[in-house]
């Protein structure tokens, strides 16, 4: 099956000086037709990093050395492409962005591994790579942004990157209460009285905390942006690419 990957441009009031854009994406569970030099299928995320470099060269997006990247998980696809849901090594996708962009920050999805198999030592070694910031319950400050992140999904805690619902929601509440400009998660909230799927307990945890900007994947929403009752905005980047840029100063409010 062949599908297109939507690229959306969003405008915000302001970005820090020197940071021209943030590119956010998740759930890139596919390959492109052209294989890698070693004959292996090229993951969609690897190809996306290359295509963004081309767009920057022709001026469609800012130079990538002035662009930060947020990855919200599930960047692997089975070589057979017979179904979604296989787990595998996504280090090449993260590295493809880190090789080109200012920094890369994000979380792991439930299908992501950071080595040939699930291994905590491999994960810790990967997290030492320059410009790569993988978060799970912590924060990083980059270009004046305080970014928090929670990896994995709600599920059986005996499996990697899964937490019980009450534990996941409690972590979201803790992170939100500590304050962040951006809070990244793979799983995430629903939106009450809509068909925007997620977890009510996660939404309630966010609504009881100070407003923030949530970036999430995992469950696709037809409408990518929603606002919770406390003013928290939720951007869903499942199977889409969002380029966040500053609004021109002469633009209408």
Describe, in plain words, how this protein is organized in 3D.
The chain is of the alpha/beta class and 253 residues long. It has one domain: Purple Acid Phosphatase, chain A, domain 2 (4-Layer Sandwich). It contains five helices and 18 strands. A six-stranded mixed beta sheet has the order 1-18-2-5-7-9, covered by helices on one side. Strand 14, helix 5 (200-207) and strand 15 (213-216) form a beta-alpha-beta unit. The longest helix has 14 residues, at 44-57. The radius of gyration is 17 Å and the shape is globular. It starts with 6 loop residues before the first strand and ends in a 7-residue tail after the last strand. The model has no long low-confidence stretch (mean pLDDT 92).
Key phrases:
alpha/beta
- Number-wise, the strands total 18
The name CATH uses for the topology is Purple Acid Phosphatase, chain A, domain 2
What would CATH call the class? Alpha Beta
Radius of gyration: 17 Å
Give the SSE string. Answer: EEEEHEEHEEHEEEEEHEHEEEE
How would you summarize the topology of this molecule?
Elements: E1 7-12, E2 21-26, E3 31-32, E4 42-43, H1 44-57, E5 67-71, E6 88-89, H2 91-98, E7 103-106, E8 112-113, H3 120-126, E9 132-134, E10 138-142, E11 145-150, E12 153-154, E13 162-163, H4 165-178, E14 182-185, H5 200-207, E15 213-216, E16 225-227, E17 233-236, E18 240-246
Parallel strand pairs: 1-18, 2-5, 5-7, 6-8, 7-9, 11-14, 12-13, 14-15, 15-17
Antiparallel strand pairs: 2-18, 3-4, 10-11, 16-17
Helix pairs in contact: 1-2, 4-5
């Amino acid at each position: 099956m062949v599908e297109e990957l939507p690229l959306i441009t969003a405008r915000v009031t302001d970005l820090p000086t020197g940071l021209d854009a943030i590119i956010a994406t998740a759930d890139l569970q596919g390959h492109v037709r052209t294989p890698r030099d070693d004959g292996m299928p090229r993951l969609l995320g690897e190809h996306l990093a290359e295509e963004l470099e081309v767009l920057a060269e022709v001026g469609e997006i800012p130079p990538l050395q002035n662009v930060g990247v947020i990855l919200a998980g599930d960047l692997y696809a089975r070589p057979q492409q017979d179904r979604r849901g296989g787990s595998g090594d996504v280090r090449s996708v993260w590295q493809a962005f880190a090789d080109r962009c200012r920094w890369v920050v994000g979380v792991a999805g439930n299908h992501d591994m950071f080595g040939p198999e699930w291994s905590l030592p491999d994960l810790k070694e990967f997290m030492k790579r320059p410009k790569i910031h993988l978060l799970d319950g912590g924060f990083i400050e980059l270009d004046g942004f305080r970014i928090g992140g929670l990896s994995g999904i709600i599920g059986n805690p005996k499996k990697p990157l899964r937490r019980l619902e009450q534990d996941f929601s409690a972590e979201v509440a803790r992170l939100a209460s500590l304050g962040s400009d951006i809070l990244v998660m793979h799983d995430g909230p629903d939106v009450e009285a809509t068909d925007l799927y997620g977890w009510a307990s996660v939404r309630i945890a966010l609504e009881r905390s100070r407003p923030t900007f949530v970036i999430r994947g995992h469950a696709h929403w037809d409408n990518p942006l929603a606002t919770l009752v406390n003013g928290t905005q939720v951007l869903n980047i499942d199977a889409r690419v969002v380029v966040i840029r500053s609004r021109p100063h002469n633009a209408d409010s």
